[in-house]
Amino acid sequence: MSVQLPLPETARAPEQVDSAHVRAVLPNLAYLRAAMVNVAFIGPANAQDRGWVLVDTGVAGTRRQIASGIASRFGTSRPAAIIQTHGHFDHVGALEELSEEWDVPIYAHALEHPFLTGQQSYPAPDSGAEGGIMPKLAPLFPRSPIDVSARLKSLPDDGTVPHLPGWRWLHTPGHTPGHVSLWREADKTLVAGDAVITTGQESAYEVAVQEPEMHGPPRYFTRDWAAAAASVRLLASLEPSLIVSGHGRAMAGHEMLAALHHLADHFEEIALPRA
Ligand SMILES: [Zn+2]
Ligand SMILES: [Zn+2]
């Protein structure tokens, strides 16, 4: 099995959980775990219409769960935009429906566009990656691209994030070519997508139990490990104080940061699949 980086319970970010299971970690940042993947809400609770941004859109079949989380936090207010950290099936499940319903632009890195415009499929998952049932099931996961080209835009070249003053997008490739993370320097907040995740995804047990651990990107879909390592090192160098990732609970504080540095410093031993 993989070398794990257990995180103590005290590394969990303090959260306020509402009745729809939306987990607020800051006044203007919350997330919701729908099935096995997180979506993030950037903007204050009860933001005005077009006054917040949705990051990622979950796995297929969770649209209603996401919608009820949104209703709980924002009432009937629609987001100004949807930002996709990347286009994997477990992060775009409700993208077509929600973007149409809200009539919103979708922002993603230009290198991710072929996977969001029906042009290209992701490479087959690495079913040889060690670690139990998820890699074995991975070949059954859908890989064919969705087509949201009518609403899709590139993130601005200057690193700013539309509708999110104070935030920057960071190119964090490796897991996918156009993977991005979102960063707010003022309070060192990181929305990491799958560049680093805070629970294991390689076994059904890990997915179910969601032990807090600091992991590199999910192995069975990651192709460019050199780029993935560089991305983790970039994120560690920023010294985040809070991480909301694509999988697992939000983590914060010096224990989280120590685990992130440990992952960055020993990435090849910890994160890479065993040959
Ligand atoms: Zn992914
Ligand atoms: Zn994912």
Quickly count the domains: 1
CATH architecture: 4-Layer Sandwich
Q: Tell me the CATH superfamily.
A: Ribonuclease Z/Hydroxyacylglutathione hydrolase-like
Largest sheet: 8 strands, mixed
In N-to-C order, the SSE pattern is EEEEEHEHEHEEEEHHEEHH
What is the name of the CATH class? Answer: Alpha Beta
Read across the widest sheet, the strand sequence of neighbours is 1-2-3-4-5-6-7-8
Label the overall shape.
globular
Topology, pairings included?
Elements: E1 16-17, E2 23-26, E3 29-34, E4 37-42, E5 53-55, H1 63-74, E6 81-83, H2 95-102, E7 106-108, H3 133-137, E8 152-154, E9 167-171, E10 180-184, E11 189-193, H4 204-209, H5 225-237, E12 242-245, E13 251-252, H6 253-265, H7 267-270
Parallel strand pairs: 5-6, 6-7, 7-8, 11-12
Antiparallel strand pairs: 1-2, 2-3, 3-4, 4-5, 9-10, 10-11, 12-13
Helix pairs in contact: 5-6
The structure holds zinc ion (2 copies).
